[in-house]
Specification:
It contains 13 helices and 8 strands. The chain is α/β, with parallel strands linked by helices and 330 residues long. The protein has one domain: NADP-dependent oxidoreductase domain (TIM Barrel, Alpha-Beta Barrel), CATH 3.20.20.100. The chain has an 8-stranded parallel β-sheet. Helix 2 packs across helix 3, helix 2 runs parallel beside helix 12 and helix 10 crosses helix 11. The longest helix has 15 residues. It starts with 16 loop residues before the first strand and ends in a 14-residue tail after the last helix. The N terminus is likely disordered. It binds NADP nicotinamide-adenine-dinucleotide phosphate (NAP). NADP nicotinamide-adenine-dinucleotide phosphate (NAP) binds next to helix 12.
Length: 330
């Protein structure tokens, strides 16, 4: 499954995308196949409204549902009838499993993803950096992605969970073959500012012409403000994490809620708009049509400078932040 020719213009991403980690994940997200009809509506609504970027991964889906997120996206894209069909951008992340240590293995993995997506991958991202335990694996993996790009099988090469040192190195490798890195994806939200404040990734990405994507921009749902209020905590790991974080983040949630009330918006919309104001592309996950509709309401307006500063201050005063991804490199 290939695109006829090598892409002539760099892949440009929309201001916001939709994350699909939950689509097929029973363990963390309580996915049930009965949700599929509504997930199709989420897909349709996003695309219809111009949110054309969908982020997935070949490791998404738990147990025998592995690959489910890609499969659902493939199915939804096939049956979708409406505007922006020609602008669909399916961004998958290829897991850096230990057995994927040759370029050929990466190319094979991409082909399997394209089969599930029933179309060529638009943006193929290296899911994580192996710098912390097998640094030698990054080069062949990147070579695989670059080969796919050269063969015209993908429109863009992306990275995820890379820090500045490894990013510069990867950028150098790509430059040697004249291939652009389209995007870098890191955990970024009011509860995970580390990639920009400590690692300086926004400035570096701007310098290198790389678009910065913010994953978990709602801190797994915490920044919507619903947990700790009327909504009971989710079961499992997320509930445990939220229980630890909630006492420390009350002032931040209160600031979000106050700005939301004064703007006639929701806390989720303010949290996402803050990301947009930082010049990053948030990809909030949505499990229901109502959530997707609400999240799209983050577009089309701007927090003012004072509001951004209030949020920055409230964020920096939180005693606790989200746990960083163990694969995030320096
Ligand atoms: N590169 C990586 O390593 C990596 C890691 C993590 C995620 N990602 C990507 O980033 C995407 C987004 O991150 P995420 O899904 O982890 O977390 P998120 O976007 O911070 O939170 C999404 C969750 O929050 C809740 N939610 C969303 N919108 C809401 C709304 N308007 N009102 C109330 N609740 C709402 C939903 O869960 P509930 O309804 O259950 O509360 C939803 O599944 C993922 O789907 C994935 O594509 C990438």
């Amino acid at each position: 499954m290939s695109i006829a020719a090598s892409p002539s213009s760099p892949l440009s991403l929309p201001p916001m995308g939709c994350g699909t980690w939950a689509w097929g994940n029973r363990l963390l997200w309580n996915y049930d196949p009965a949700m599929d009809g509504e997930l199709q509506q989420v897909f349709n609504h996003c695309l219809n409204q111009g949110v054309t970027l969908f982020d997935t991964g070949d490791s998404y889906g738990t147990g025998r549902l592995n690959g489910r997120s890609e499969t659902l996206l493939g199915r939804f894209a096939q049956v979708y009838q409406g505007p922006n069909q020609d602008r669909i951008c399916l961004a998958t992340k290829l897991a850096v499993y230990p057995w994927r240590w040759t370029a050929a293995a990466v190319e094979k993995a991409a082909q399997a993803s394209a089969q599930r997506l029933q179309r060529p991958i638009d943006l193929a991202q290296m899911h994580w950096s192996t710098a912390n335990y097998a640094p030698w694996q990054e080069d062949p993996f990147l070579t695989g992605l670059m080969n796919l790009y050269r063969q015209g099988q993908i429109r863009g090469v992306g990275l995820s969970n890379f820090g500045p040192q490894r990013l510069k190195r990867a950028h150098q490798r790509c430059q040697e073959r004249g291939i652009p890195i389209t995007s870098l994806q890191v955990q970024y939200s009011l509860l995970s500012t580390y990639p920009i404040t400590h690692l300086g990734l926004k400035d570096l990405c701007d310098q290198l012409g790389i678009q910065l994507i913010a994953y978990s921009p709602l801190a797994l749902g915490l920044l919507t403000g619903k947990y700790g209020g009327a909504t009971s905590l989710p079961r499992g790991v997320r509930g445990l994490l939220f229980r630890q974080l909630l006492p420390a983040i009350q002032p931040l949630l209160a600031t979000l809620a106050a700005i939301a009330a004064s703007r006639n918006k929701t806390s989720a919309q303010v949290a996402l708009n803050w990301c947009l104001g930082k010049g990053v592309i948030p990809i909030p996950g949505a499990k229901t049509l109502a959530q997707a509709k609400q999240n799209l309401g983050a577009l089309g307006w701007h927090l003012d400078r004072g509001e951004m500063e209030d949020l920055d201050r409230a964020s920096s005063r939180c005693d606790r932040q989200m746990v960083q991804n163990i694969f995030q490199s320096r």
